[in-house]
Design a protein that fits this description.
GO biological process, one term: methylation
Pfam families: Ubie_methyltran
Keywords: Methyltransferase, Transferase
Helix content: 40-55%
Protein name: Methyltransferase domain-containing protein
Radius of gyration: 17 Å
Strand content: 15-25%
Organism: Streptomyces fimbriatus
Number of strands: 7
Number of helices: 8
Shape: globular
Distance between the termini: 39 Å
Length: 243
């Protein structure tokens, strides 16, 4: 199976949107770990006065994590899948949370403009065709000193972590997804992780894209060595003309 990309991936997510939250709910600690990754951004004052971009919001799990940890922030949540975005936008949200349909590769065309004080991207970068181009776009959208938080399946490089990931996908996730008619998407999920960067390589990718103070932090539970938080910053000394 080849990886799903661009319109094919968005269409697969459109179809999977109806059962997505149910599958997520079966993942122990899923929502708590998203909140942990948001806290690792280290944004002050519960987000008061800050503008945050939730890049690849899906059905709103990452948006909910942001709204919980940063209830005073203005949050713009975007996703390429109309189906996922419809599910997200239909949920109750506090003032200051808005949704826009936009692919990560086409933010400007969709009217998404900076500066943002932070960008948060959960389970996004292994799904885009050109992660380096998206990182360049994200960096340009950040204000000087702005922070990027990435919550992503990035294997540690140890064989045992790949084996656990494969066991969970093939033994639990894929059978459940196939029963819902979404087997292709979740076969993509397994392959997209094993073919993407290891955690160390993704941290190096962030540095190469111009982010400083890059940290790679593990997450607890069964996903230790499988899912990581990455935090980076756009330099405060970079001139505005570099945007």
């Amino acid at each position: 199976m080849t990886l799903l990309r661009d319109e094919d991936l968005a269409a697969a997510f459109d179809h999977a949107a109806r059962g997505y939250d149910a599958l997520v709910a079966a993942n122990p600690g899923y929502h708590a770990q998203l909140r942990r990754s948001v806290r690792r951004l280290g944004l002050p004052h519960r987000g008061r006065g800050l503008r945050v971009l939730d890049l690849g919001c899906g059905t709103g799990a990452s948006t909910a994590a942001l709204a919980t940890v940063l209830p005073k922030a203005r949050i713009l949540a975007v996703d390429a899948s109309a189906g996922m975005l419809e599910r997200a936008a239909a949920k109750p949200w506090p003032d200051g949370v808005t949704f826009t349909r936009a692919p990560a590769e086409g933010l400007a065309e969709a009217g998404v403009t900076g500066p943002f004080d932070a960008v948060f991207a959960a389970y996004l970068f292994r799904n885009v065709s050109d992660p380096d181009a998206v990182l360049t776009t994200v960096r340009a959208l950040l204000a000087p000193g702005g922070r990027l938080g990435v919550h992503e399946y990035t294997l540690s490089g140890r064989r045992v972590d790949r084996a656990v990931w494969t066991l969970v996908c093939r033994g639990i996730v894929q059978p459940a997804a196939t029963a819902l008619g979404d087997g292709a998407l979740y076969r993509h999920l397994w392959r997209s992780v094993v073919e993407f960067d290891t955690a160390g390589r993704f941290a190096d990718r962030l540095r190469a894209a111009g982010f400083d103070r890059v940290r790679c932090l593990p997450l607890p539970g069964w996903q230790t060595g499988i899912t990581h938080t990455f935090v980076g910053r756009r330099s405060r000394t970079e001139p505005e003309s570099g945007r």
